[in-house]
């Protein structure tokens, strides 16, 4: 037979083990919840960063497209001015010939 004191000691040890198990379970749950929150925050941060990068890339592509079209327009205007100048010269030459024919 065990004494009352020994029985009390066994009960206290059992309570201590149960308490430690509950604490460990509680802290594991807290750590798990913290990890889930960190993962969710990281996923949200990554999604925001990806969206910003996509927006930045879209703006850059739009700017490049605009620059390309603007340069094409400027080139076309320069060519048109050159062609207009050439047409003016040809017109002057034709007018001089016509005037020369009329004067004959």
Write a brief structural summary.
Keywords: Coiled coil. The chain is an all-alpha fold.
Structural overview:
There is one protein chain. With 104 residues, the chain is an all-alpha fold. It has one domain (1-75). 96% of the residues lie in helices and 0% in strands. The chain is built from one helix and no strands. The chain has one helix at residues 4-103. The protein is rod-shaped. The model has no long low-confidence stretch (mean pLDDT 94).
**Count of distinct strands:** 0
Measured by DSSP, the beta-strand proportion falls in under 5%
| Spatial extent as radius of gyration | 44 Å
SS-based class = mainly alpha
**Which consecutive residue ranges, at least 5 long each, have pLDDT under 50?**
none
Largest sheet: none
Count of separate structural domains: 1
The helix/strand order is: H
Helix content: over 70%
Describe the global form.
rod-shaped
Q: Taking all residues together, what is the mean pLDDT? A: 94
State the helix count.
Answer: 1
In whole angstroms, how far apart are the ends? 151 Å
Task: Provide the fold topology.
Blueprint: H1 4-103
Keywords: Coiled coil
Coiled coil: 30-104
State the main characteristics.
1 helix; 104 residues; mainly alpha
